[in-house]
Amino acid sequence: MRFVLAALLLAAPAAAASPEFEQRARSLIDFYAHPTGSGEPGYGTIAAKLYLREDAEWCSRRLEELLAAGPSGDMFWMFPVTSIAYLDRGQLSDSARRALRNAWKTYAPYRGDTENHFLLYYTCLYLMAQLWPDLPGSEWYTGKPSEANLAEAREWIESWVRLTTRRGQGEYDCTHYIGVYLLPMSYLAAWSNDPAMKKRAEMMLDYLIADYAAENLDGLYVGAHARTDDRQVVEKWAAVASDFGWTLFGLGRPQEPPGGYALYYLLASAYEPPEILKRIATDRSQPYAHYERKRTRNRWRFHDELHGPVYKTTYVRREYAVSSDQGGVLQPIQQHSWDVTWATPDPRGAHNTLFALNPHSSLHELQSYFVFAPDNAIEAVVRSKKTYDSPDKLLGGSPYEKIFQDQDTVIALYDVPRGARFPHVNGFFSKDLAEVREDASGWIFARGGEALIAFRPLQPYQWKPIAGGGRRLFSPYRQNGVVMQVAAASEYPNLEAFARAIRALPLQTRIEPTPRVVFQSLRGQKLEFTYGETPARNGVPLDYGAWPLFGGPFLEAAVDSEALLMKHGSLRRKLDFRRLTVEEFNE
Questions:
Q1: Which residues pair with 572 in a beta bridge?
Q2: If DSSP codes are grouped into helix, strand and coil, which group holds residue 315?
């Protein structure tokens, strides 16, 4: 039986939030409205107090103090003060409002150079131009009148939604920047006066949350990631995604203290995801394979196309998730290409992951994705991304890494040319692994939570300590590879039984002239992979041309469709961005 619950453009009245969601939201807002630390309260405290309609006189005075000190932070200044402008609702003093208005005349925020920068920038410019609709260009830092600012911002936002729903995000599945995409959509859903823009933003909230819901493990965002950082790549919990897993679904634990992105999300629309997304985010009763196609960041040099395709595979079950992209440099500096992440009762401080990489660093990579001059480019990057040029690093993509995943098996192959700066493989072995055994067969066996892990380097290696705990597997060979097979502890009586099963699997490897692996996985699949060639499963090459924008038991979307179908049991929810419609029905 099929029945439509929402129709073209005009949204039905929002359903009342659940008591649990309201409690989580109120606790986070209260935390910012009534800070207990010794530091000076900032824009977040002002916004939270205005939301609660508290201390209007203090809010006005403090806002003027902050603005008098001089705005800074570009688009990261724009979004807090935009929320303050919309949460004012008659509470701020006339002088505070004049100071706020003057800041948008005299301070010129940099638009940035990344997808999240642009989205923040244009969302805030759109809303402030809407708030002050008739101002001439002389009253704006842009030099353009309100109408022109609004039109420019609207055009960019609409083009971003089209590109994302046709070819995927460029800064996809980021452990931190998930907040920077949900926040502007929450703003537009709450404060846009245009019914079409408001509806588009509401639908994009569903779209972005669905993307996360299918790839989380008790709130932890599993890979592969366009961007993460040196801490979050090993401590999955220490991320903005953890705040949203807890805020939206009550999963896991928020950061301590929770980050400001979730605060501003709640101060605007405070959108609670629909029931179907709650079920997708929390149902790990059956293992499943999930597929996504994304796109690279803008490539300014050395490529014929602005965006290249990114092919993601994620295998999720209650005990662990295995995830990957196809390898190569898909994003500069902070890419994370593959890993296994295991569930843990308390992820705080836990390094519940294992992976390997070639620690690539090059001017060619930076010039592909950035427009700054080559002189001192690497030095400039290292000022903020301190490990980028380190041979010991555990973060980043490599043009010399190719990856093939089938369910919970990963094969990663490396063919580093002579003259490359870091011609070796780093493997991250966590401090939280148990029962680590180096077997005479060449396999390394370990337990991470309820995940049993078999890790097979193709070349000799040695161990190096990692600051903060754990060990780095260091294999100094240009031609190299890794085979990783994961299983649940419930499938075997102990680690030795798992090891016997792994040793019994047919495995053929070679290093020259190019690395190659033929492996019969625990799941009965014959996997063949030669570096530089299309991998094959049971003799059939992977068809990258048929890769979906989303595919799996929970989400379906075809490339170029501008649509998304969410599924759980008999529930269905379909987003159509061309018609701006949302349908809910049973099948």
A1: 567, 585
A2: strand
Q: Are 400 and 414 in contact (CB under 8 A)?
A: yes
The predicted-structure confidence for 133-175, as pLDDT tens digits, reads as follows 999 999 999 999 999 999 999 999 999 999 999 999 999 999 9
DSSP result, 419-447:
T-S--SEEEEE-TT-EEEEE-TTS-EEEE
What is the rounded distance in angstroms from the CA atom of residue 341 to the CA atom of residue 433? 11
pLDDT digits (tens, 9 = 90+) for 221-232: 998 999 999 999
Cis amide linkage into residue 513, ω under 30° from 0 = yes
Please state, rounded to an integer, the average pLDDT across all residues of the chain. Answer: 95
Q: What would you report as the CA-atom Rg of the chain, rounded to the nearest whole angstrom?
A: 25
Peptide bond into 80 cis (omega under 30): no
Q: Is the pLDDT of residue 13 over 70?
A: no
Which pTM was predicted? 0.96
Instruction: Give the CA angle between residues 175, 179, 180 to the nearest 5°.
Output: 110
Q: Which residues contact 546 (CB under 8 A, 6 or more apart)?
A: none
pLDDT for 279 equals 98
Sort strands 320-324 and 581-586 into parallel, antiparallel or unpaired: unpaired
At residue 340, the 3 state secondary structure works out as: strand
SS3 call for 342:
strand
Q: Considering only CA atoms, which of 121, 249, 123 is closest in space to residue 189? A: 123
Q: What backbone torsions phi and psi does residue 500 show, to the nearest 5 degrees?
A: -60, -40
Taking each helix axis from N to C terminus, what angle separates 94-106 and 75-87, rounded to the nearest 10 degrees? 150
What tens digit of pLDDT does each residue of 472-518 get? 999 999 999 999 999 999 999 999 999 999 999 999 999 999 999 99
* Beta-bridge partner residues of 71: none
Q: What is the Cα–Cα distance from 237 to 291, expressed in whole angstroms?
A: 23
Sequence spans of domains, the chain: 40-167, 288-504
Q: What is the pLDDT of residue 14?
A: 58
Rounded to whole angstroms, how far apart are CA atoms 73 and 50? 22
d(C-alpha 407, C-alpha 32), whole Å: 42
- 516 φ/ψ angles, rounded to the nearest 5 degrees: -150, 145
Q: What is the C-alpha separation between 395 and 200, in angstroms, rounded?
A: 35
DSSP letter string, 196-216: HHHHHHHHHHHHHHHHHHTTE
Question: Residue 39 carries which DSSP code?
Answer: S
To 10 degrees, what angle do helices 75-87 and 115-131 make?
30
Q: Is 74 exposed, middle or buried (0-12, 13-18, 19+ CB in 10 A)?
A: middle
Q: What is the mean pLDDT of residues 531-550?
A: 98
Asked whether the predicted pLDDT for residue 466 surpasses 60, the reply is yes
Distance of CA 198 to the CA centre of its chain: 24
> Are the C-beta atoms of residues 123 and 157 closer than 8 Å to each other?
yes
Q: Give the burial string for 264-289 (b: 16+ CB within 10 Å, else e).
A: bbbbbbbbbbbebbbbbbbbbeebbb
* Tokens standing for residue 475: 């294999």
pLDDT the model gives residue 412: 98
Q: What is the mean pLDDT of residues 287-307?
A: 96
